[in-house]
Amino acid sequence: MKVSGKVHKYGDNVDTDVIIPARYLNTADHKELAAHCMEDIDADFVKKVQSGDIMVAKENFGCGSSREHAPIAIKTSGISCVIASTFARIFYRNSINTALPILECPEAAEKIENGDEVEIDFDTGVITNKTKQETYQAEPFPAFVKEIIDAGGLLNSLKK
Known about the structure:
alpha/beta; about 20% strand; 7-stranded mixed sheet; globular
């Protein structure tokens, strides 16, 4: 599977409180969560993001609380994949469980810039920066992770 889109880039230690502020956690409506995604660090994010776009960040993306609302808000906003140098462990697992593809790749996280056009091949882990004509190698998803993401999340994958 491949995805491609425009990059929305952030720095280190983007925590779940800025991905989806706690004041919006009283709803389970995914579209409502997405409407407030990233608003405390990028007020225009929801106006700029297009379906298929890619989010890139540096170290420790998704640190903070263990809420699964954060990957749900990102995915529902239209982001097709998050690339970071590293992810907080709970965010990493919540992303897989909610079918938000994420890739750790320090080189890509460093070199990709806001607005770049990027293509990702999940089968090989190759990230292609079309803007800069560069490629970066991430670890491709193991088979069990592909199954969870393809099923639309962990709970859906258990129904098979």
